[in-house]
Specification:
Elements lengths: L3 H4 L7 H7 L10 H18 L1 H20 L3 H31 L5 H41 L1
């Protein structure tokens, strides 16, 4: 089975341009601005192709809206920003590991499975940690909102 990454057009060009570059060595980014562009292309690729990245981005958006509505203090925003970034970063790394494993091991191999499973486990652990941090941050705000209703 061919990797879905191999079927995709080059992120900054056509399929023909990608085919023309096949077998060519990677070159250093020509500028800092180009490097940011490549990073954006990676985020865009993950958002277009990875269901779980979309889920994490959507939940992150809900968390941000809830934080704005609750007027969270700066310290709580710092914690949320950190765990949101960690979850998205881990999901991007998982996407990269899966693409690389598919490229170098298109057939099933037990070590390829281990690499993919461990990468997915990293996302799971980071996501669980984010839920714990979110519960710690939002918990007392939710209790404060609900306490007038109890009286």
């Amino acid at each position: 089975m061919q990797s879905p990454v191999g079927d995709a057009p080059a992120q900054n060009g056509t399929r023909q341009e990608a085919a023309d570059r096949q077998g060519q060595p990677y070159r250093r980014s020509p500028s800092l601005l180009a490097s940011f562009g490549y990073a954006y292309e990676g985020i865009a690729y993950a958002f277009r192709t990875q269901r779980n990245f979309k889920i994490h981005a959507f939940i992150s958006s809900l968390v941000i809206v809830a934080g704005l509505l609750l007027r969270l203090p700066l310290g709580e925003w710092e914690g949320l920003a950190l765990v949101i970034a960690l979850v998205l970063q881990t999901e991007l790394t998982n996407t990269a590991v899966e693409a690389l494993v598919d490229r170098v091991s298109p057939e099933y191999h037990e070590l390829a499975k281990v690499a993919k499973d461990c990468s997915a486990a990293a996302v799971l652990i980071t996501s669980i940690a984010a839920v714990v941090v979110g519960a710690a941050i939002f918990g007392h705000h939710i209790v404060a909102l609900l306490s007038p209703l109890a009286h």
